[in-house]
Hints:
By secondary structure, the chain is mainly α. It has helices at 10-14, 20-36, 41-72.
Amino acid sequence: MPKKNTIATTQEMASPPASFEAAMEELSELVKQMEAGDLALEQSVVAYQRGSELIKYCANQLDKIEQQVKVLETGILKPFNVDNDEDLA
């Protein structure tokens, strides 16, 4: 029985993700497929390239959010202290 090839088309692979969450979901699926050995060698290379693009996209999104938090906190990131209940009230 031939292996199931569920990797996205080249056109889908070239398009940017709709959101951070969509990128993480797509990346998770790519990892599952690659770990399961469901892809031919060429498809694995394409999946690896797409995964690299998704990681860069997610890192960029996180950087943008960090910058927004810095602005909201007047340029100073405050450490999150889980042990201090006063911060949660």
